[in-house]
């Protein structure tokens, strides 16, 4: 069972790693790409789930949990995109990927769950790898402004989503979870786009193709796989493994947007993956997920 969950998580991360590459193409604004990513995925999965009798909600508390998950996920994407627009993709990505720390802290403080030592060691290694990956000079040049705050906030939203989705998924199947939570995300992002005065149409054919890929691959397929893994793995571990998307996104950027990989990114990527690997080496008696 765990092998299937780990494979699903790995494949899901590969799928979401395409998203930053698509955003970097600048075919649409960041907020619009976030909205259509959710809207397209929801338009596919919600009718299939509804007419296939897959939506099963036992009480209003489950619906509230789904709404919270949807708003948290949408808030993470919206805040992350606004952070990029007001600073840089590197700073926003670095700050958002502090989410494993927030997952560990929130788990310990509010959920009374003590993350394993391997998690904290892996987190330290992975974050050191992140600093190497983006460059120490980038970290030293961080601007402690509104965009910095948004980057931190994005990581907190991401952490909360991982924790709340883990709890919510224990009460229902993945299809029910995704179809309803994404519907809430879509409505929330639609309202955000209205507030920011975004235009919903008038894009090029290439832009629409990009939006379709984002909705089907980066959202629907990716989060079906990641949600399947989240239901079966510790939230702390999932949050840390998700850091590997930075490495995969860089590799995909080489292929699709002709970016170059420098030595520090190779070293940083190895350190990040080594930190993640640490969390999977435990005594056999501690392996219960």
TrEMBL record:
Query: An example Gene Ontology cellular component term from the record?
Result: membrane
Main localization is membrane
Location in the cell: Membrane
User: Where does the EamA domain start and stop, copy by copy?
Assistant: 7-134, 147-280
What Pfam families would the database entry show?
EamA (PF00892)
Q: How does the record classify its membrane topology?
A: Multi-pass membrane protein
Q: Write down the InterPro entries for this protein, in alphabetical order.
A: AA-Vitamin_Transporters, EamA_dom, EmrE-like
Gene3D superfamilies for the chain = 1.10.3730.20
- Supply the alphabetized keyword list: Membrane, Transmembrane, Transmembrane helix
TM segment ranges: 7-25, 31-51, 63-82, 94-111, 118-140, 146-164, 176-197, 209-226, 238-256, 262-281
Family that this chain belongs to: Belongs to the EamA transporter family.
Q: What is this protein called?
A: EamA domain-containing protein
What species is this protein from?
Chryseobacterium koreense CCUG 49689
């Amino acid at each position: 069972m765990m092998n299937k969950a780990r494979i699903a998580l790995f494949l899901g991360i590969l799928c979401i790693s395409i998203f930053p590459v698509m955003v970097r193409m600048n075919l649409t604004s960041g907020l619009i790409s976030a909205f259509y990513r959710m809207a397209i995925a929801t338009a596919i999965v919600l009718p299939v789930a509804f007419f296939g009798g897959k939506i099963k909600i036992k009480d209003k508390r489950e619906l509230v949990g789904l709404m919270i998950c949807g708003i948290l996920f949408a808030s993470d994407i919206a805040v992350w995109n606004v952070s990029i627009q007001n600073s840089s993709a590197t700073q926003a990505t670095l700050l958002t990927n502090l989410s494993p720390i927030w997952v560990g802290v929130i788990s310990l403080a509010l959920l009374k769950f003590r993350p394993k030592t391997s998690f904290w060691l892996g987190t330290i290694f992975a974050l050191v790898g992140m600093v190497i990956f983006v460059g120490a000079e980038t970290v030293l040049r961080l601007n402690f402004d509104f965009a910095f705050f948004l980057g931190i906030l994005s990581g907190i939203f991401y952490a909360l989503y991982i924790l709340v989705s883990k709890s919510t998924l224990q009460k229902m199947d993945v299809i029910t979870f995704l179809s309803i939570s994404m519907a809430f995300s879509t409505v929330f992002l639609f309202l955000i786009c209205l507030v920011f005065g975004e235009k919903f149409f008038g894009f090029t054919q290439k832009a629409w193709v990009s939006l379709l890929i984002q909705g089907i691959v980066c959202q629907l397929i990716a989060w079906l796989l990641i949600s399947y893994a989240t239901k079966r793995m510790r939230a702390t571990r999932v949050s840390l493994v998700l850091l590997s998307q930075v490495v995969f996104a860089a590799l995909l950027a080489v292929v699709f947007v002709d970016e170059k990989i420098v030595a520090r990114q190779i070293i940083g990527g190895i350190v990040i993956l080594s930190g993640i690997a640490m969390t999977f080496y435990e005594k056999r008696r501690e392996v219960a997920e």
